[in-house]
């Protein structure tokens, strides 16, 4: 019911994760609401990476950014075969990519298993090719793995969710996919929620989704995300 209300509200506001001309222009030109200091590429090499797709990457990026042990999150595209895809192509469903986040994390602080819990706990993995008001294969649910151990962790967690009937009989449609490549999205998509807090989609969909996650995963939050 709550998700239905969000969908209706989003439709009334004419919002979706897909950038129309007006939204894209605002995203490109909007000044940052806060100074965002990004880590250097050399520093990021010290961290492990994980990759997840669960709907609009504006939302997913903000969720993982709030998790302790996560150093950086990058929005991009994965799960397809075309090299160097552009947002307009992905959004139109012309490539096989999904909107994906690259998560740099410190395994001494948070485990891959915990990141998988965050992934499944922050979206509905039973809605095929849809998340909230956004629909199409580019918004499908994918848990990527780089090793057989990561694959085992993901599959075991899915089995546990099914055994405990967490989703009330609904089938989990999440793809468990071997990671192949990741393409960083255009710069205006990076930290979109933090840079555009007054964007209608952010206010109607992203922030409520982030707040629901925070309410359910308080122990996983960074200190500065506990508000």
Kindly summarize this structure in a few lines:
This protein is α+β, with helices and mostly antiparallel strands and 227 residues long. It contains nine helices and eight strands. It comes from Pseudozobellia thermophila.
Kindly give the count of domains.
Answer: 1
Q: What string, H for helix and E for strand, traces the elements in order?
A: HHHEHEHEHEEEHEEHH
Distance between the termini: 25 Å
Which overall shape is indicated by the principal axes computed on the Cα atoms?
globular
Q: What is the CATH level 1 assignment?
A: Alpha Beta
**Unreliable stretches covering 5 or more consecutive residues:** 1-14
What's the total helix number? 9
The assigned structural class equals alpha+beta
**Which bin fits the share of residues in helices?**
25-40%
Mean pLDDT: 89
How is the CATH topology named? Peptide Methionine Sulfoxide Reductase, Chain A
CATH architecture group name: 2-Layer Sandwich
Major sheet, described briefly?
6 strands, mixed
Classified in CATH, the superfamily is Peptide methionine sulphoxide reductase MsrA
Residue fraction in strands: 15-25%
Task: Output the radius of gyration.
Answer: 17 Å
DSSP summary, beta strand count: 8
Strand order of the largest sheet: 7-6-1-3-2-8
Can you give a write-up of this model?
Pfam families: PMSR. GO terms for molecular function: L-methionine:thioredoxin-disulfide S-oxidoreductase activity; peptide-methionine (S)-S-oxide reductase activity. Keywords: Oxidoreductase. It is an enzyme of class 1 (oxidoreductase). It comes from Pseudozobellia thermophila. This protein is α+β, with helices and mostly antiparallel strands. The chain has one domain: Peptide methionine sulphoxide reductase MsrA (Peptide Methionine Sulfoxide Reductase, Chain A, 2-Layer Sandwich). The protein is 38% helix and 17% strand. The protein contains 9 helices and 8 strands. A 6-stranded mixed sheet has the order 7-6-1-3-2-8, covered by helices on one side. A two-stranded antiparallel sheet has the order 4-5. Strand 4 and strand 5 form a beta hairpin. Helix 1 packs antiparallel against helix 9 and helix 6 crosses helix 7. The chain is globular, with a radius of gyration of 17 Å. It starts with a helix and ends in an 11-residue tail after the last helix. The N terminus is likely disordered.
């Amino acid at each position: 019911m709550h998700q239905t209300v969000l969908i209706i509200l989003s439709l009334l506001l004419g919002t979706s994760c897909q950038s129309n001309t007006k939204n894209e222009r605002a995203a490109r030109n909007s000044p940052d609401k806060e100074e965002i200091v990004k880590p250097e590429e050399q520093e990021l090499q010290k961290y492990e990476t994980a990759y997840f797709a669960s709907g609009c990457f504006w939302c997913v990026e903000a969720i993982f950014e709030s998790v302790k042990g996560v150093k950086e999150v990058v929005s991009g595209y994965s799960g397809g075969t075309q090299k160097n895809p552009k947002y307009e192509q992905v959004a139109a469903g012309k490539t096989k990519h999904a909107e994906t986040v690259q998560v740099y994390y410190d395994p001494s602080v948070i485990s891959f298993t915990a990141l998988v819990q965050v992934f499944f706990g922050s979206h509905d993995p039973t809605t095929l090719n849809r998340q909230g008001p956004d629909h199409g294969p580019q918004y499908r649910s994918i848990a990527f793995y780089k090793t057989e151990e990561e694959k085992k962790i993901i599959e075991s967690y899915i089995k546990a969710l099914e055994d405990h009937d967490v989703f009330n009989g609904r089938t989990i449609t999440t793809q468990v996919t071997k990671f192949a490549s990741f393409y960083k999205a255009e710069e205006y998509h990076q930290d979109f929620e933090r840079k555009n807090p007054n964007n209608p989609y952010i206010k109607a969909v992203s922030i409520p989704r982030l707040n629901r996650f925070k309410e359910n995963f308080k122990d996983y939050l960074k200190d500065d995300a506990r508000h």
